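Board notes, transcribed. Complex of a protein with coenzyme A.
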Amino acid sequence: MNYETLLFDLKDGVALITINRPDKLNALNDQVLEELGSAAERLATEDPIKGAILTGAGRKAFVAGADIGELAKQGAFDGKARALRGQAVLRRLETCGKPLLAAVNGYALGGGCELAMACHLRIASENARFGQPEVKLGIAPGYGGTQRLPRLVGKGNALYLILTGEMIDAGEAHRIGLVNKVVPAEQLLAEAEKMLRGILAMGPLAVRLALEAVERGLGMTLEDGLLLEANHFGLLAGTRDMKEGLTAFLEKRAPRFEGR
Ligand code: COA
């Protein structure tokens, strides 16, 4: 697929995906969502892509929400269909099996906050602003905000943001656990790449199965989640990478992981 609203650059295994509608603060219209769905499929299926960073074009916004112009035209059934489409795209990103970081460079509102939450980690510039302002428009979050936000920051913080529609700054987002790290704006992409390359230097099978256990396990009973974890632990115990990692520690040298 040729992208018109995304930039997709692959460098040494790291895909940099930039939502590129800066004149509309990178708002998620149907075309952006369709192209993001295709990008998610590439992440999940293309072996040369080892991990990805998702960001927004320009300094002002990561994503300022779903495209309000499109929302204004919808009725009950196409509204539901839009929510389901958006949820599916974000879930495909979340379950792509490769580490995905959001580099949040400004407003992450509504669908933008939801998109950042579907990423595995969030690194924010000092000027980032987060919020779920949907209630101000007479709607409620539709791309997973009511589900992922309480899982990330707890029910009390989530309800505060969803019911008041208030925007919070990067420091507050960090305090409540919505973002993992806050950095100066000019260092955002470099810091995101550093964090991702650090993860990619770990045992790749271990990273993949740890991601899967957390993403899938959250929807399971504790018993089932623990069984999934033990199965993954056993699977990893049969890999060359585990032997290499443990041997390298004992020999006081850096491991050379091969992903098998
Ligand atoms: N959907 C569609 N267009 C949007 C948008 C959105 N979610 N957010 C911003 N834009 C557009 C504006 O309409 C404007 O376009 P125009 O220049 O053609 O008029 C452009 O992006 C710049 O936005 P503007 O509002 O002029 O910037 P600002 O600095 O004054 O305000 C915000 C920035 C983020 C506070 C403001 O744009 C805003 O509140 N956006 C909506 C946020 C929201 O409710 N998101 C949830 C949607 S469900």
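Residues 181 and 252 are 30 Å apart (CA to CA). The two ends are 31 Å apart (CA to CA).
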